Amino acid sequence: MSHKNFDTLVTSMNNELYKINQWFKANKLSLNVKKTNFIIFVGRNKKYDKEKARIYINDNAINQVSHTRFLGVIIDEKLSWKNQIDFVCKKISKNIGIIRKVKSLLSRNIFMVLYYSLIYPYLTYCNIIWGSTYTTSINPVYLLQKRFVRIAANASFTAHTAALFRDLNVMTVFDINKFQIALFVHKIVHNSSSLPEQYKGLLNFNSDIHHHYTRQHNLLRSIKTKTTQKQHTIMFRGPTVWNNLSQILQSCSSLPSFKKLLKIDVIEHPSITFS
C-alpha cells in the first residue's frame, strides 16, 4: 500500500487490516501477531515520524522492522539491499575460506564444481533484484569473486583477474545481473505468454509508441528518470541491457540458444573494467 500523505497511509493500512481481521474471524482463523511485522519503505533521504507509524490488527500492535527476510531475500526499508548483500558476502566468504584451505588437493574441475555448489547459488538467487543496486554496494561481492578466481587459477593475490574470469568461464556478479535481466526481457519480447499477466506490457518498443520509421524504432523504450534509485528498476535497466545486445542475440527466439550465446557475450564483454 502506498500514499503521498503519511497519516493517510497509516489510517488506510489500519482500515484494511480491520477488514482482514474480520475475514479471519468469519473463517475461524487467527494471525500470530508475534511473528508478524511491517516495513515502511521510504527514499534514502526521506524521514518520517516513527511515533505515528502505529499499525494494529485485532487491537494488537504489529512490530515495525527496518528489514526482514521474504522468500529468502532480505528486504530493507531503503531498498538498498545492504542486508542482503552482507548476507551473501558472509556466506561466500566462509565457503571461499574452506576451499582455500584444501586448494592444494583440488584440480581445476573440482574447483569449479565447488564454485557452482557453494558460491554461485548465492550470487544468482534473485540477483535481478538486489544486484541492480549501486555498483559500490555490489563491489564487496565482486572482490570475493576475484579472490576465488585467483585461488582457482593458482594466481598471486595481486594478479589481474580479467583473463582469469574468461579462462574459468565465470561471470562476475555484475554480469550475472546483466544475464538475468536479459533473460527476463527475452521472455517479455519473445514469449510473454509464459509470464504473469502483470508483466505483459511492462516494456514497449519505440515502434509501439510512434509508427514513423526511425533508426531506433526496433529498440525498447526506456523510462525517463531523474533519480538514481529509479534507474535500478527493470523498466530502466531492462531496455538499457537489451538495446546494447547484438542484433543476433535480440532476434534469437529460442531461450536455450539465447542463454548459450548470452553467456559467451557477457564473459567476452564484461560490464565493468577489471583490475
Quickly count the helices: 12
Count of extended strands: 6
Walk across the major sheet and give the strand order: 1-4
Structural class: mainly alpha
What's the N-to-C terminus distance? Answer: 44 Å
Average predicted local confidence, pLDDT: 86
Name the beta content range.
Answer: 5-15%
Taken in chain order, the helices and strands follow as HEEEEEEHHHHHHHHHHH
Q: Helical proportion?
A: 40-55%
Question: How would you describe what is shown here?
Answer:
This protein is mostly helical and 275 residues long. Helices cover 49% and strands 6% of the residues. The protein has helices at residues 6-26, 82-101, 108-118, 120-124, 127-130, 135-152, 162-168, 173-190, 206-209, 234-243, 247-250, 255-268, and strands spanning 37-38, 56-57, 60-61, 63-64, 67-70, 73-76. The strands form 3 sheets. It has a two-stranded parallel ribbon. Strands 2-3 form a two-stranded antiparallel ribbon. A hairpin with a 2-residue loop joins β2 and β3. α8 (173-190) runs antiparallel to α12 (255-268). The longest helix is centred in the first third of the chain and has 21 residues, at 6-26.
Features:
12 helices; mainly alpha; two-stranded parallel ribbon; two-stranded antiparallel sheet; 6 strands
Summary, kept brief:
This protein is mainly α. It has 12 helices and 6 strands. Helices cover 49% and strands 6% of the residues.
List strands and helices in order, with pairings.
Blueprint: H1 6-26, E1 37-38, E2 56-57, E3 60-61, E4 63-64, E5 67-70, E6 73-76, H2 82-101, H3 108-118, H4 120-124, H5 127-130, H6 135-152, H7 162-168, H8 173-190, H9 206-209, H10 234-243, H11 247-250, H12 255-268
Parallel strand pairs: 1-4
Antiparallel strand pairs: 2-3, 5-6
Helix pairs in contact: 2-6, 8-10, 8-12
